[in-house]
Amino acid sequence: MLRFLLNVLWLVFGGGFVLALGYGVAALICFALVVTIPFGVASLRLASYALWPFGRTVVPKPGAGVASGLANVLWVLLAGWWLALSHILAGVALCVTIIGIPFGVANFKLVPAALWPLGQEVVETP
């Protein structure tokens, strides 16, 4: 019940909708450029995570190889840096208030996923 409450508050006050919208825009751009469709899929995965982060985490996907690592370098250059920057700015802004600290921490938790999304998967925490 607490996770549900935190996720609803995150969606309304923590910027979850705006951050997920940023990932959605990145996904649409990646889908328009046919070669970058895997980036679009990863971006949509992170959009759902940015929309509802409490009770879930990002873990390395078993079997992700060197190609994922090389593609992540390209991702960081094209889209990852501005998505990570948006999480950092939102996290700092939310940590200014006492009530916003859990949401700021959630934003900081999303920074590595924004920078390195390929070869990662979102799983439920126990």
Give a written overview of the molecule.
- The longest helix has 30 residues, at 66-95.
- Helix 2 runs antiparallel to helix 3 (37-51) and helix 2 (16-32) packs antiparallel against helix 4.
- The chain has a two-stranded antiparallel sheet.
- It has one domain (2-124).
- The protein has helices at residues 2-13, 16-32, 37-51, 66-95, 101-115, and strands at 56-60, 120-124.
- By secondary structure, it is mainly α.
Q: How many structural domains are formed by the residues?
A: 1
Strand order of the largest sheet: 1-2
The N- to C-terminal Cα distance equals 14 Å
Radius of gyration: 14 Å
Overall 3D geometry? globular
Task: Write the topology of this structure.
Elements: H1 2-13, H2 16-32, H3 37-51, E1 56-60, H4 66-95, H5 101-115, E2 120-124
Antiparallel strand pairs: 1-2
Transmembrane segments: 63-82, 88-108
Keywords: Membrane, Transmembrane, Transmembrane helix
Domain Inner membrane component: 5-56, 70-120
Notable characteristics:
126 residues, mainly alpha, globular, Inner_membrane_protein, transmembrane
Could you provide a short overview of the structure?
It holds the Pfam family YccF. This protein has 126 residues and is mostly helical. It has one domain (2-124).
